[in-house]
Write a structure and sequence with these properties.
Strand content: 15-25%
Distance between the termini: 37 Å
Structural class: alpha/beta
Number of strands: 29
Low-confidence stretches: 543-550
Largest sheet: 8 strands, parallel, barrel
Mean pLDDT: 93
């Protein structure tokens, strides 16, 4: 055990529930359930892997507790617990998690209300019927933008009664605790929030009316499941929207919940309008929500769970050591590395596969796709792959060319399976040139943890040799006489045929970052995808107004599409664009096409079809990447040749790591 990490690993207590440490795996939607909301073996294996990895308590992704009152599934394939028919498979889940060494709690929502973006549980109605959400009032969600039917008083009372039955089922199925979903602007949160609750009956009017539903849900659960069954309330402490609920009122609610017998408060934040607080992207600081937990902990005696990018063990330890919370919760951190707790216990923290907060996981959920992790290709595939990889039938000599994410993962997997692997990289560092450059952008330096993880794995693999500063050519590759070749040479900057593109003040974003060009004056970035806006963020990241004034720096991003950064995950994209817009020295021009680069600047054609010259001291080209494959012809001469990553199609880290993983399995 690391001497630096003690509080995280101490036992803890939530009501009658004794936990072996202070780490909780928080809800993480998977979309692995059956169409009608039944637990599958895939879900069981997903949770068991995290139980075996050492987390003390696992909280399921949201289960729906009252689909007759709120008939809209927030996500296709979300779980249900509103009928006894779901109990048998739920019991299979709890038994398996207990065998894995963890406790498990059921997160249950009576509905998603005005914010639902799903369709009825009766399938096949999309495009046939117009969704009519239900809610505390008729106020619509600005994100879902759907009409809302206000629940009647009688319907609310029915909901309370039925919700308690879900708690009874949870206890019958073997769950160790019950979590009331009052987070994120979903149905319970809508009753709590003055933003949504304009009712004039007993469930509205004032503070007492707005908290009535939540208190009655607690009482219904206690009546049906027993007063000794621990209840946790997962709620937004600050909704971070004008007119929403803030910290002061949330503390009043927390005190009332303590009086009502609730065992713990899971302190979170946000609603759909402030989604970046529900699932904080990399542009928000680590521990971003901890102060909310600390504010609640000062006022209640029951345990408080802290959230918000706490996957760095030392930061999580500090939260507990400083008394800001009693437990730390994380979802993405244990998605990226199910063995997070075990590695911390064994002082193997250099081997942690630390989450990068890229949000590719939740991005897939928003698209209706099952969850994946950008850096852990086994996440969601636990039913296919065990904790250890299958051994190869016999060892082969494998040459992997290119040590970017795809090449490093391919080399790791092939070596772990027993092959003799040589990994070649033309630069002097693991990570490859393109990936290393991407880590220079603001807030992306922690992507270097990906390289650190592979370095730790390569040290353990005696059958893997890393050869740096070696640009492999046809002669070298043939001299190696490999049994298998994996080509992962990455991509190069796309340079379109534009007049003036060869001028001395024009750089590709790759060369610009590599050379560390210092700029002043006016900079035009041609291309407003991820690469373009990321480069704009880097160039414009000037910390003080005085420096900004001294340099006179102005950055203009030119994008041919209607919006910038459409290739970025939604929450990350919106957060970054807001960040750029508030800097004051960045302008985003959408629907503009670059025609020419002259000594005066960049000639563009706007949406009105008129030409304009944007003055530019520097021009940065960010038109994306093209495959870089100088060795493809010779590599294909070998009988077992695979070409992976950006060599095939420029993509994201997730695509590269996944390609590398499966390439290593195919050798």
């Amino acid at each position: 055990m690391s001497q630096r990490i003690e509080c995280l690993l101490k036992p803890g207590q939530i009501g009658t529930l004794r936990l072996k440490n202070r780490v909780i795996f928080c809800p993480c939607e998977t979309l692995y359930a059956t169409v009608d909301g039944q637990v599958t073996q895939r879900i069981i294996d997903f949770y068991v892997r995290r139980a075996e990895g050492g987390a003390a308590l696992l909280v399921t992704h949201t289960m729906q507790g009252c689909t007759r009152i709120d008939p809209y599934d927030p996500f296709a394939h979300s779980l249900r617990i509103d009928d006894n028919a779901y109990v048998p498979m739920l019991s299979e889940l709890t038994e398996a998690v207990h065998r894995g060494g963890a406790k498990i709690a059921a997160l249950v929502s009576p509905g998603s209300g005005a914010q639902s973006m799903g369709y009825p549980y009766e399938r096949g109605l999309e495009g046939i019927t117009e969704p009519l959400n239900v809610g505390a009032s008729e106020i619509q969600s600005r994100v879902a933008q759907r009409k809302v039917r206000k629940l009647s008083t009688d319907e609310v009372k029915t909901l309370v009664r039925v919700y308690g039955l879900a708690a009874r089922r949870a206890r019958t199925a073997g769950f160790d605790a019950f979590v009331i979903h009052a987070l994120g602007g979903y149905l319970v949160a809508q009753f709590l929030s003055p933003l949504f609750n304009t009712r004039d009956d007993e469930y509205g009017k004032d503070f007492e009316g707005r908290i009535r539903l939540l208190l009655e849900l607690v009482e219904s659960c206690q009546r049906n499941a027993g007063p000794d069954f621990p209840i946790i309330v997962r709620m937004s402490i600050d909704e971070f929207v004008p007119g929403g609920r803030g910290v002061e009122e949330s503390i009043r609610i927390a005190k009332r919940l303590e009086e009502a017998g609730v065992s713990a408060i899971d302190a979170h934040a946000g609603i759909y309008d402030s989604m970046h607080f529900i699932i904080p992207p990399l542009y928000l600081p680590k521990g971003v929500l901890v102060d909310l937990a600390a504010a609640v902990k000062k006022e209640v005696r029951i345990p408080v769970i802290a959230q918000g990018r706490l996957y760095d063990p030392e930061i999580a330890e500090g939260v507990l050591r400083d008394g800001k919370a009693d437990f730390v919760g994380m979802a993405r951190g244990l998605l990226a590395d199910p063995e997070w707790v075990r590695k911390v216990e064994q002082d193997r923290m250099e081997e942690l596969r630390l989450c990068t907060s890229c949000n590719q996981c939740i991005g897939r959920i928003f698209m209706g796709l099952p969850i994946r992790c950008a850096i852990n290709p086994v996440a969601g595939r636990e039913s296919q792959f065990g904790a250890t990889l299958p051994k190869a039938d016999g060892p082969k000599k494998v040459c992997v060319v290119g040590a970017g994410p795809a090449g490093m993962e391919a080399a790791r997997v092939a070596a772990e399976r027993g092959h003799r692997v040589k990994l070649f990289e033309k630069t002097g560092e693991l990570g490859g040139g393109q990936f290393r450059l991407s880590t220079l952008a603001p807030f992306k330096e922690e992507f270097k943890n990906i390289v650190r993880y592979y370095e730790s794995q390569f040290k353990k693999l005696k059958n893997l040799e890393v050869v740096l500063n070696c640009e492999v050519d046809a002669k070298r590759l043939k001299a190696e006489k490999p049994d298998a070749v994996i080509l992962a040479t990455g991509g190069a900057a796309r340079v379109p045929d534009i007049k003036g593109i060869d001028r001395p003040n024009v750089y590709t974003n790759h060369d610009f970052l590599k050379a560390g060009v210092k700029v002043s004056g006016k900079v035009v970035i041609a291309g407003g995808g991820c690469a373009g806006v990321g480069t704009a963020d880097l160039i414009s990241d000037i910390s003080t107004a005085d420096r900004l004034s001294d340099l006179g720096l102005k950055v203009t991003v030119v994008e041919m599409l209607e919006q910038c950064a459409l290739d970025e995950e939604l929450i990350t994209r919106l957060t970054l664009l807001h960040r750029l817009q508030t800097k004051g020295n960045v302008e985003l021009l959408n629907n503009y096409v670059v025609k020419e680069i002259t000594d005066k600047g960049v000639v563009v054609i706007g949406p009105d079809k008129k030409e304009t010259t944007l003055p530019a001291d520097y021009v940065v080209l960010a038109f994306g990447a093209v495959p870089y494959h100088p060795l493809e012809e010779v590599a294909r001469q070998f009988p077992n040749c695979q070409i992976i990553g950006d060599v095939v199609r420029p993509g994201k880290i997730k695509d590269a790591v996944e390609d590398g993983f499966f390439a290593g399995l195919r050798v």
